[in-house]
TrEMBL record:
Record's compositionally biased regions (Gly residues): 206-215
Oxidoreductase is among the record's keywords: yes
The species this protein was found in: Halopenitus malekzadehii
Record's keyword terms, sorted: Dioxygenase, Oxidoreductase
A Gene Ontology molecular function term of the record: dioxygenase activity
Tagged with keyword Oxidoreductase: yes
Domain annotation Cupin type-1: ranges: 243-359
Name assigned to this protein: Gentisate 1,2-dioxygenase
């Protein structure tokens, strides 16, 4: 019998003696290993988390558990959309956090990068970062970068809710590395700066010679310019989006979009691991495309659907949804809509792994 007619499985059959030696020394042949690569973590599924459901859940959590009763550690009262093992994706984590009137989420710092995107904000709801109190008004984005002390203080008479976004699953799950962490000795860090201090360092007017020394904070090492504490006020972002819509052509896949820049470099991505866009979509479908980066979206305003593969994810204001890697997708708002787009694309780009294409029709 010619060899080409042999069963390929049979050709790969190892003798029991070889198999025993491999097992004894914790070795395996590549052709078996490569089939299993990429299957250790759950694949994220396309999905949408509706605000009404999130709200119901966080209202109940808020009734049951004061922040002060939470076990020491993160001490944050958060509802976390679950899609993979512990988060909405294997790279980006989002959670919806609430702080009741008079409560404080105690001060801590960690290796993971984080930001807050205010959903239901108030000028007396403050995120304190690196000595400055940043007010959290609707749709403001406030960075709480790597190794900066941060606590959240609600001096208003309303419950504040916001979106937390971190690169935790990338560090903890995908890389199985440690999130270096420390609690502050005080519940609230001392406020040592006047309001607007960090904007005076990294805004449009800067100290001569530049702000900061560009070194990576704390015990960390790397090559990226660290992201400073910063508040991106929504009014300016919205005005810039409107200017784009009035003057520019939209991106065929993402509408009129503005990237949040790392204020230290003046360029995106905001963090080495995650990039963020405010996207204004006008009525009608965008062009489909796919890419190996994960996209997570928060609906700032408007309604519509995002088509992911065969699924239509219907969304409206304050919903959260995910477009997993390599899924063909396009957006279709009913009328004008504004999304916060979040992506792990910088991680792939840093190592020349990012790939994007349009489907062949
Ligand atoms: Fe934190
Ligand atoms: Fe996309």
């Amino acid at each position: 019998m010619a060899q080409t007619e042999s069963d390929p499985e049979e050709l790969l059959e190892l003798s029991s003696e070889t198999r025993a030696i491999l097992e004894e020394h914790s070795l395996r042949p590549l052709w078996e290993v490569e089939d299993e690569m990429g299957t250790a973590l759950d694949d994220p599924e396309p999905g949408v988390w509706k605000w009404d459901d999130i709200r119901e859940a966080i209202d109940h959590i808020e009734e049951d558990v004061p922040i002060a009763d939470l076990p020491p550690g993160f001490q944050r009262r958060v509802a976390v959309p679950i899609n993979t093992a512990h988060a909405i994706s294997n790279s980006i984590y989002v959670g919806i956090q609430t702080v009741s009137p008079g409560e404080t989420a105690p001060s801590h710092r960690h290796g993971a990068n984080a930001l807050r995107f205010s959903i239901d904000g108030h000028e007396d709801m403050k995120t304190v970062v690196a000595g400055e109190e940043f007010p959290m008004q609707d749709n403001d984005l406030i960075t709480t970068p790597q190794w900066e002390w941060h606590d959240h203080v609600n001096d208003s008479d309303e419950t504040a809710a916001w979106l937390d976004v971190l690169d935790l699953p990338l560090v903890l799950d995908s890389m199985n590395a440690r999130n270096v962490f420390e609690n502050h000795e005080l519940e609230r860090q001392p406020v040592t700066k006047t309001p607007g201090y960090w904007d005076s360092q990294y805004g449009n007017g800067r100290p001569e010679g530049g702000a900061g020394d560009g070194s990576i904070p704390g015990p960390f090492e790397g090559i990226r310019e660290p992201t400073p504490p910063y508040r991106f006020g929504w009014d300016e972002m919205l005005e810039a989006l409107r200017q784009r819509a009035d003057n520019d052509e939209p991106d065929p896949h993402d509408g009129y979009s503005l990237s949040y820049v790392n204020p230290a470099t003046g360029s995106p991505p905001l963090f080495p691991t995650m990039t963020f866009r405010a996207q204004l979509l006008q009525e009608g479908p965008t062009d489909p495309h796919f890419h190996n980066a994960t996209e997570v979206y928060f609906v700032i305003e408007g309604e519509g659907a995002t088509h992911v593969g065969d699924e239509a994810l219907e969304w409206s204001q304050w919903d959260v949804f995910i477009v997993p890697p390599d899924e063909i997708h396009h957006h279709e708002p009913d009328d004008e809509a504004i999304l916060l787009g979040m992506s792990d694309r910088p991680v792939l780009e840093a190592f020349n792994f990012y790939a994007e294409a349009e489907p062949s029709s």
